[in-house]
Design goal:
Shape: globular
Order of helices and strands: HEEEHHHHHHHHEEEEEHHHHHH
Distance between the termini: 78 Å
Helix content: 40-55%
Structural class: mainly alpha
Radius of gyration: 26 Å
Strand order of the largest sheet: 1-2-3
Number of strands: 8
């Protein structure tokens, strides 16, 4: 077995973004042209080997075969051993929740399929079979893509350490379908607002806060009164709460409070006037959590359960708590918010995420827009 070395690597998502892509172009003559980096010439400019084919897939296959022939070293280490090496090297550089997520995906999906196979024996066909199996199990393309990103990161690590051929090169991620989320329409939103006004308590106040600021359920559950400045009317998001899986046999899961999911998720949100009375009525001690009124928090799954119960009591359709964030974003666009400002309020890294995932328009809104079309025919 090859000597194990440890090198600095990034998270799986960062690895996938940084991985060398097939540079394939559609030429004017109808053929496809690919290239492989071959260092630099005497003037310091990049050199390339050019590959041609009638289809993109043909060029990809040729490039993959060339790289396979160039990677001739073998390694008997199994995928299970490789993942252990990769995780040991990586766990100190990622969030605890991210590490728990990687372990869950590996133990539940990757290792049962690949675990006992030597890493130099894994082929692109086996990875394709793995994808097909996961589809038959009912996993979504989005979730399968997340697993493949992790597999690619692990094998890129193997290439650095053992100089084997990377079987994940050329593996395309399953096309992700845009998930549809059920929202409350304007009348249903009004009914929910009325219910909150008539049944004011810390839980309904939390729901109102999500409707009026767009904060995530984990951010809401981690919110303490020290994060809310009623005098300046400012809410500061600096942490989030989630339950993660544990690698020990004695405890299966644990609740953690940590930094938000990204750097831009740490943000300051002006509190709208409509929230001031509710917040003033339930203002608690500095270290008390907003949802509980004590130093003991309410975790996300409990808040989701309470939200469902409130929807039922208000005779409203069942929607996920995250729908409140989507409702906030859609309402903000309807109210004329600048998209850049909305993106920052939601804690997104760019406006494309805001527009593509969180802005929904109703058919009535589309009809109103279309009624503004004025042409002379």
């Amino acid at each position: 077995m090859a000597t194990r070395k440890y090198v600095k690597i990034m998270s799986a998502e960062q690895e996938e973004n940084q991985m060398e892509k097939f540079n394939i172009y559609h030429r004017q003559d109808g053929r496809y042209e690919g290239r492989i980096a071959r260092g630099k010439n005497e003037q310091g400019k990049p050199k390339y080997q050019y590959i041609f084919g009638h289809t993109k897939e043909e060029v990809q296959k040729k490039i993959t075969e060339i790289r396979r022939q160039e990677r001739t070293e073998s390694c008997a280490e199994t995928v299970a051993e490789l993942f252990a090496d990769w995780y040991q090297n990586n766990k100190h550089r990622i969030k605890e929740s991210t590490g728990a997520n990687y372990l869950m995906k590996a133990n539940k999906h990757i290792l049962p399929f690949f675990g006992d196979i030597a890493i130099d024996s894994v082929t692109d066909k086996e990875i394709g079979s793995f994808i097909d199996q996961k589809r038959k199990e009912g996993l979504s393309n989005r979730y399968i893509s997340d697993i493949i990103v992790l597999i690619k990161s692990v094998f890129k690590f193997a290439v650095k350490i053992y100089h084997i051929f990377n079987p994940t090169e050329g593996i395309s991620l399953p096309k992700k379908k845009k998930s549809e989320i059920t929202l409350l329409d304007e009348n249903e939103q009004q009914k929910l607002q009325q219910y909150i006004a008539e049944n004011a308590n810390p839980t309904t106040t939390g729901i109102a806060l999500s409707m009026s600021t767009g904060i995530r359920i984990g951010e809401l559950c981690a919110l303490q009164w020290k994060d809310i400045d009623l005098e300046k009317r400012i809410l500061t998001v600096r942490k989030t709460m989630q339950r993660i899986q544990c690698s020990t046999d004695t405890v299966k899961t644990k609740l953690i409070i940590t930094e938000p999911k990204s750097e831009t998720s740490c943000r300051t949100i002006p509190i709208p006037e409509c929230m001031m009375k509710l917040l003033q009525n339930f203002k608690g001690k500095h270290n008390n959590f907003v949802l509980s009124g004590t130093e003991k928090p309410v975790e996300p799954r409990v808040m989701q359960y309470r939200f469902q119960k409130i929807l039922k009591n208000a005779k409203l359709p069942s929607v996920h708590f995250h729908a409140l964030r989507h409702i906030f974003a859609s309402n903000c666009i309807r109210w004329g918010f600048d998209v850049k400002a909305l993106s920052e309020l939601l804690g997104h890294s760019n406006v494309e995420i805001t527009l593509n995932l969180y802005v929904h328009s109703s058919f009535d809104q589309k009809r109103a827009y279309m009624n503004q079309v004025s042409l002379n025919f």
